[in-house]
Design brief:
CATH topology of one domain: Aspartate Aminotransferase, domain 2
Number of strands: 13
Structural class: alpha/beta
Radius of gyration: 26 Å
Length: 501
């Protein structure tokens, strides 16, 4: 294609950095000279300009609007990332979160002035306990990994209360990386458990590693291969027989919410990603929330603060003294991710228990539809139906000269965000797809047609198409390895070497 003079291509505008558009000498508004004041900065007054560009409002608005048009987002395209649950976020949730009584609340306000906020946290906790069948929940964890940390902290506190010192935590090889990281952060040694040929935990291997030094076993169910751990009751029995606790990773709770009570599976602690299961968006690093439900054995060790209520209203428990609790500590400032609570509770109350059950069913149905339609062109990693995400591997690309990465990059040119690549690590060249319940059959059919077409082109030897992809994006393939290893985090104007960093 002939290059344009401007570098833009129609409405795909070539967009420089803000720093390259403005100038520190300019200002988008006229400001009066401030009156002289007594310097109370103790010698820390800034001695040089801050270096921010001066920009007019239209320039700023256009800049961020154009950037948003260059990115994939759940509001613009199908987002089939496996193990992420990037579902539609109803705008009703946002409207509720922006109500002045919620948006303007401050954690330092007196209890009497935030009764509505405390009532909302309490109601959110009630929903989570009812859905999971668990007697207690810690509402403060900020996200999934933080919820794992919270659960493992309560387990450690419970073991110490029993006068025991246990040092090992068993984690499946297919687990999310946050599982071993959370265990290590809590001071435990991580011992991996392999999967069997069915893509599930090797029960015999698990039993062989259980012993008096095992504090907990962590399990994601459905697991990261998109499969339900159908031996979970026997797993729970074996773990408890060894005196250990059973931790459930709730990252994939979206597949079973309203259909399975985790308490009935023998789980002692499980974090729930509100930003995955209950619609709150979490792209771009946030927001998130990871309330952690706890069994009766762990409930006394839940971190503070917590909300209780009696005839006089709602109250915050901020201190262990007189509370009858043995908290593992305080893992977050204030009272949890309140804005996410509002969004999630809005979703729960608008869906109802029956609607949440239906959403789980639809998520599983959509994933199995992908699995059934794509199995003739791609290679499923395991036999049988899946849960809410379908897992394929790169065997269908054998001898084509096309890699998993090439295939995913070509999908970008088709107008779809790529599926999750190379995860879980136990599957070579993994392609993990999660359609969620939010997508229509028409959307899935369009995605299927593109994936099938690309697979057939790869098998036909059209490698050049894949090696050059993506061709239609504002930027082509970047050196992601170099960017990760040597990130340039600060821009500076052209210096002596003429570089812009």
């Amino acid at each position: 294609m002939t290059k344009t003079i401007s570098g833009s291509r129609g409405l795909t505008i070539e967009e420089p950095l803000l720093f390259e558009q403005g100038s520190p000498e300019q200002c988008g508004v006229d400001l009066e000279e401030p009156p002289a004041v007594v310097d109370r900065l103790g010698g820390l007054r800034r001695k040089a300009p801050i270096g921010l560009p001066g920009l007019a409002e239209p320039t700023v608005v256009r800049h961020y609007t154009r950037l948003s048009q260059k990115n994939f987002g759940i509001d613009s395209v199908f987002y089939p990332l496996g193990s992420c649950t990037m579902k539609h976020n109803p705008r009703l949730n946002e409207k509720m979160a922006r109500l002045a009584g919620f948006a303007d609340v401050h954690p330092f306000q007196p209890e009497s002035t935030v009764q509505g906020a405390l009532a909302l946290i309490d109601l959110m906790a009630h929903w989570l306990k009812t859905l999971t069948g668990m007697p207690a929940v810690a509402m403060t964890p900020a996200a999934g990994a933080h919820g794992e940390f919270c659960g493992l902290m309560t387990i450690r506190a419970a073991l110490e209360d029993r006068g025991e010192t246990r040092t090992r935590v068993l984690v499946p090889e297919s687990a999310h990386g946050t599982n071993p990281a959370s265990a290590a952060a809590c001071g435990f040694t991580v011992d991996p458990i392999p999967a069997n040929r069915r893509g599930r935990v090797d029960l015999a291997a698990l039993k062989s590693k259980l012993g008096p030094d095992v504090a907990a076993f962590m399990l994601t169910n459905p697991n990261t291969c998109g499969l339900f751990e159908d031996e979970i009751l026997e797993i729970s029995e074996a773990v408890h027989a060894a005196g250990a606790f059973f931790y459930g990773d709730g990252a994939n709770y979206n597949a079973i919410v309203g259909r399975v009570r985790v308490a009935d599976l023998g789980i002692d602690a499980m974090h729930i990603n509100l930003h995955k299961t209950f619609s709150t968006p979490h792209g771009g690093g946030g927001p998130g929330a990871g309330p952690t439900v706890l069994s009766a054995a762990l409930a006394p060790f839940a971190p503070l603060p917590g909300v209780i209520h009696d005839d006089t209203g709602f109250h915050l428990v901020e201190h262990a003294v007189g509370s009858g609790r043995k908290p593992c500590g305080r893992i977050k400032g204030y009272h949890g991710q309140f804005g996410v609570f509002i969004r999630a509770l809005s979703y729960m109350m608008s869906m109802g228990a029956d609607g949440l059950r239906q959403s789980a069913s639809d998520a599983v149905l959509n994933a199995n539809y992908l699995l059934a339609r794509l199995s003739s062109d791609l290679t499923p990693s395991f036999e049988g139906p899946c849960m809410h995400e379908a897992l394929f591997d790169d065997r269908f690309l054998k001898d084509s000269g096309v890699s998993t990465l090439d295939f995913a990059k070509a999908l970008i040119d088709e107008g779809f965000h790529p599926m999750t690549m190379y995860f879980p690590l136990v599957v070579h060249g993994a392609l993990l797809m999660e359609p969620t319940e939010s997508e229509s059959k028409e959307t899935l059919d369009g995605f299927i047609a593109s994936v099938q077409g690309l697979a057939r082109r790869a098998k036909a030897g059209d490698g050049e198409l894949f090696h050059n992809a993506p061709e239609f994006t504002p930027r082509r393939r970047l050196d992601e390895t170099a960017a990760a290893r040597s990130p340039v985090l600060r821009w500076s104007p052209a210096g002596g070497n003429g570089d812009k960093k």
